[in-house]
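debug: dumping io for the single-chain case to check the tokenizer round-trip. Nothing else runs in this session.
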Amino acid sequence: MHDAATERYCLAVPNEWASPSFEVDGAIAIPRPAFVRTVTFYDTVDLALARSKAFLARSDDGWLLHVEPLVTKARLVRIHSPHRAKSSVDLVPDEIQRAVTARTLGADLRPVAAADELVRPIDIVTLDGHLLATVLDTTTTVARGDGGATPLRHVTVTTTADTPPDLPRELLHAIEAHEGTRSSPAAMVVQLLGRRATLPGLVPIVPLDEHSDARAAIRAALSGHVRRLIAHDARLRTVTDQVAVHQSRVATRRLRADLKTFRSLLDRDWAEELTDRIHPLADALGAVRDLDVLIERLESSRDALPKSDHDGANGVIDLARYERDLAATALRAALDEPDHVTLLAELASAATTPFTTADATRPAADVLPHLARKRWKQLRTAVHSLDDDATDEALHAVRIDAKQCRYAAQAAARVIGPDAKRFAHAIAAVQQVLGDHHDAVTTEAWIRAHAAHLSGADQFAAGALATIQAQLARASREAFPAVWAEASGSELRTWWK
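debug: decoded output
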């Protein structure tokens, strides 16, 4: 698995490149003997991995899966799996098969190219020999069917947990000063595999401008959410980290919200069926995400307590972490179900060829403001129906309406521009303050529901934590009117008149 304490930087260099001396204060460069290795690249028949910024390579060292981010906030995934037995050398490990499911839709992985690599390692070490970084100068040659070959040379800088903060920049600057240009390992593999690897991936980005029709806007919205799901899938299956869970949950929420917002432009039965299909995945993600939020709030509240109460608060937090582990295990099991691959295929199809009505051929700039206005009216009606003693459930319902309104405005902003973005930003503030209220309420309720399972110092700390959450809920409730007053100003809605 990719180690968060290390980073890798890739630069393309000319085939006749001459390595710099890598003169760095307090360190020296020590070349190691060059070696040759054969690397076999695996992919699907249609090169689904290469077309989605990923590659799988097998060498004498074992298997290496490299998955680059498709969207912002996604993180690099690198899995190295050594050969476990001589008989399994050609069998792709199960952990790798699972990690690429969203990009291959379960298709078979097979050899697609073999390459010879001449590797020239250079260690960057302290004066007493402590390793700080490694520079690999590699020339890769892939044999072509016509007897020709394509040599490519690249330099990879790999840091360690002990690498000084400025060292990578100094090494990269030295390479760039000698004709090196920033690249990525996946981009290098695409060059090696040829033209087919440059074709659009499973869910291409859909460009929009002021002349786009509503169908293009629907495709752009849905494709963005599906790409986000695909981008975070590998980390969901491997480490199930908070970012991957949060971003994937947002993707499912926005998919369902957009299917609802665009309902008048979509085949109703198709949209409703797809929305229902997304629900189980959204619920599994939500179970983990809700506990992540709860743990963050408990940790923040613990820090506000006297030091003498921290051990008791940690007992409460440990209980939440245990539940989180159970929810994460259930999520990974859901992702391994065959139906999940079917869902991903359906979502990819929906993003590229949605079932739209004739009205979707109208200009998006004419249609989307109307849809956002409908969401706004629904939100405004909900807010105006609140009384001074509105229940927590009523405020939560308004939060959901605010979220739907914000999503509709953000979809419109792709073709309308800054005015719609400003409105969406203002509504996001409403969603945030009500979200903080809801999180505080649910955290307090969780604490009180679990207090009976605690004892001694843990139970006392639970009471203190619950009191803090109740105070935070009141503060958010009191802040809501001012936030709403600012977001509901008529000057923010001139773009749909």
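debug: round-trip ok. Confidence is low (pLDDT under 50) at residues 1-5.
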